[in-house]
Design brief:
Length: 217
């Protein structure tokens, strides 16, 4: 029996060691969502479960971790004028072990742009390649992004612009679940609509890019 227990423990450890950074990112994002009280928005855009808020005592220092460890900025959740959604994604990727491959930034636009440029150049050094939302059905582990203002598209982006990305954590017929930071002041899971082919058709935001692990991964 003791040998069996040791073998099972070894198997669990080996499985953990074998996780890719993409898989670790999913676990980390889900853990943070639970930490913040599982705030949830349904496919209609309705808040169906409230969670902890960025400036509350139990959470503002966790937001400070995202800022400091993700993008090296000295801010906390009490700095409510500073959006921390990109810092959250950067922190998740850094904790997941992306190393120097990911473009850690407090602007989502930085890594959105780099994912698109990397795909065009067939550059496999960047961990994600960016696709038009008409080209790829989001899969678990992908990032999906939208612009917060008009005039931005897959084919036209300035160096920086207001935007947002979420990590895809579940895929079902005609919908996906995504987790992101600073969504209604919390780490939040949203449900987004997809069509029968799995393509993103949610109309509540200006979605224009799906960032998928590059083909070398």
């Amino acid at each position: 029996m003791r040998k069996l227990i040791l073998a099972l423990n070894l198997l669990l450890l080996t499985s953990a060691w074998a996780q890719t950074p993409y898989e670790k990112a999913l676990d980390i994002a889900r853990e943070e969502w639970v930490r913040f009280g599982q705030q949830t928005i349904d496919a209609e855009g309705k808040l169906v479960k409230s969670g902890g808020r960025e400036n509350e005592e139990d959470y503002y220092l966790r937001v400070a971790d995202y800022w400091k460890e993700g993008v090296n900025r000295e801010l906390t959740g009490k700095d409510t004028h500073e959006p921390w959604s990109a810092a959250f994604i950067s922190w998740v990727m850094k904790k997941a072990g992306m190393g120097d491959r990911f473009s850690y930034s407090d602007w989502h636009a930085t890594y959105i742009r780099n994912s698109i440029l990397s795909r065009r150049a067939k550059d496999k050094s960047f961990p994600y390649w960016g696709y038009r939302i008409e080209e790829r059905a989001p899969q678990v582990g992908d990032l999906v992004g939208y612009a917060r203002k008009g005039g931005i598209s897959y084919d036209y982006q300035p160096v920086v612009y207001p935007s947002h990305t979420d990590l895809v954590v579940a895929v079902r017929p005609n919908e996906i679940d995504v987790i992101g930071g600073n969504v209604k002041d919390s780490v939040t899971k949203k449900t987004l609509r997809t069509d029968n082919s799995g393509l993103l058709v949610d109309k509540q935001y200006r979605w224009f890019v799906v960032m998928a692990p590059n083909p070398s991964n």
